[in-house]
């Protein structure tokens, strides 16, 4: 259709596949007559097999930023912002810590830390440097990015991550051509770990009112009218009957006993919780002592970013009765490329549907379990051995992005091995007791019902392209 809108969706991480592809958002737009182009960091047959065949797939143009801009953005403005948040009592949650590999890097990072914190005390300097950053970003547009946009001719651009340095030249080119860019947040953590937004998106789609308030608090320059509640289509794949295996087939696939109750343990990324088998063994001992709950089997769902296989091997040798399930995900650590394949949607949705409880570190899995109505027990104590990445397991629970879970009581915090035993027994014997809390979490954190997020995203896209109903020729 010559006059139908054209969407360009950027795939720098791979998480976009589940949120925009598996959720049905692309299919909905295609059915409405839209043209949908996915520009991906790795555009191979694996990705093509996961997407609607009507989606056009292209290589995503990525470029490195000038060192001066990187230094200004991350070393000064981001650190100054982090210092302000720390003084407000925020947890300072980070996805990962930057590690210096030599003395030069140690000196550089130390100097950046000092300068960033010093900048906090000078609001006028912050305003000046922020203006310079914005000007520098406007001038990042390259010939390669301009040619790419001319070739695609999008009416609107969509992405799900607020900060990706390698995308800034393309976003700058879009800004120069007045192509609206929409950000639909993939995770609540991004409002915490990537709270300072340094590109003027045309529209922002957030999960809920609390998330909207947090985004605007940290970025007072954002027009509140540009921030809409869209929920998160990432959860559209959960709790669905059409993605459910029959129980006999499901149990045969995993190799579980026909009448056992299943406790899911979602493993963390290996670098986040080293030697996590310590907690899995503890859970195993705990379940052996619970005589009143019948036969129970642990299903360890390996982390999609676990590529070394160490945890699976340790469990097979130490506890072969534990079921180890490896997710069908694509994970390329060197290129930071990760996505869920279609088959894993069905297996994971079925796993939570047939599970009696979930035990593990505080994470987004709690929201997925709330959709599936599965009781969650979070681990909140350290065991002898290597520490978790933030320094303590309890810090996962205390992170800012977990506030709604704490307030609603949608998960139970086990603060000791003894408390773990009591919490697991309670969840297995009386799973209905936390149901209202789980429903409250979905209402407060997602805002939009899990299976209505695609509708909200489509409405936002239609509103954005309403003034222009033909392919961009800017």
Global geometry: globular
- Mean pLDDT level: 91
Structure summary, number of beta strands: 15
Low-confidence stretches: 470-474
Give the count of helical stretches: 20
Helix content estimate: 40-55%
Strand content: 5-15%
**Biggest beta sheet summary:** 7 strands, parallel
Helix- and strand-based class? alpha/beta
How is this structure best described in words?
The structure is a single chain. Helix content is about 45%, strand content about 15%. The strands form three sheets. The protein has a seven-stranded parallel β-sheet. The protein is of the alpha/beta class and about 475 residues long. The chain is globular, with a radius of gyration of 23 Å. Strand 2, helix 3 and strand 3 form a beta-alpha-beta unit. The two termini are about 20 Å apart.
């Amino acid at each position: 259709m010559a006059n139908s809108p054209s969407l360009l969706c950027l795939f720098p991480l791979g998480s976009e596949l589940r949120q925009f592809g598996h959720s049905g958002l692309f299919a909905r737009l295609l059915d409405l007559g839209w043209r949908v182009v996915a520009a991906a960091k790795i555009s191979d047959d694996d990705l093509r097999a996961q997407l609607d065949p009507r989606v056009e797939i292209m290589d995503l143009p990525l470029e490195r930023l000038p060192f001066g801009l990187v230094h200004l953005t991350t070393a000064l403005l981001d650190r100054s912002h982090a210092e302000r948040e720390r003084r407000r009592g925020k947890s300072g949650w980070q996805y990962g810590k930057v590690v210096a590999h030599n003395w030069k890097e140690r000196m550089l990072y130390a100097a950046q830390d000092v300068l960033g914190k010093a900048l906090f005390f000078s609001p006028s300097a912050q305003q000046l440097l922020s203006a310079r950053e914005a000007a520098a970003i406007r001038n990042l547009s390259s010939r390669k990015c301009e040619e790419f946009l001319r070739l695609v001719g999008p009416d609107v651009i969509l992405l799900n991550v607020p900060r990706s340095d390698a995308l800034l030249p393309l976003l700058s080119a879009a800004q120069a051509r007045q192509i609206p860019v929409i950000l639909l947040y993939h995770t609540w953590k991004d409002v915490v770990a990537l709270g300072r937004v340094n590109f003027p998106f045309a529209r922002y789609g957030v999960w809920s009112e609390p998330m909207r308030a947090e985004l605007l608090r940290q970025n007072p320059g954002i027009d509140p009218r540009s921030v809409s509640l869209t929920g998160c289509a990432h959860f559209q794949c959960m709790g669905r009957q059409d993605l459910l295996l029959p129980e006999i087939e499901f149990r045969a696939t995993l190799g579980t006993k026909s009448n056992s109750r299943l406790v899911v343990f979602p493993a963390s990324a290996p670098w986040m919780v080293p030697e996590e088998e310590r907690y899995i063994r503890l859970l195993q001992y705990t379940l052996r002592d619970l005589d009143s709950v019948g036969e129970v089997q642990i299903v360890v769902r390996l982390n999609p970013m676990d590529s070394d296989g160490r945890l699976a091997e340790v469990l097979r040798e130490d506890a072969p009765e534990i079921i180890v399930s490896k997710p069908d995900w694509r994970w390329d650590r060197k290129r930071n490329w990760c996505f869920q394949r279609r088959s894993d949607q069905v297996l994971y949705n079925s796993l939570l549907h047939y599970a009696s409880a979930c035990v593990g570190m505080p994470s987004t899995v709690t929201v997925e379990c709330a959709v599936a109505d599965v009781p969650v027990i979070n681990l909140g104590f350290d065991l002898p051995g290597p520490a978790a990445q933030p320094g303590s397991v309890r810090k996962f629970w205390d992170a800012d992005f977990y506030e709604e879970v704490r307030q609603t009581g949608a998960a139970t915090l086990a603060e000791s091995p003894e408390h773990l035993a009591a919490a697991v027994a309670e969840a297995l014997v009386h799973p209905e007791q936390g149901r209202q809390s789980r429903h409250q979490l979905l209402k407060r954190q997602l805002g939009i019902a899990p299976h209505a997020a695609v509708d909200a995203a489509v409405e936002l896209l239609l509103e954005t392209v309403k003034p222009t109903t033909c392919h961009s020729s800017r």
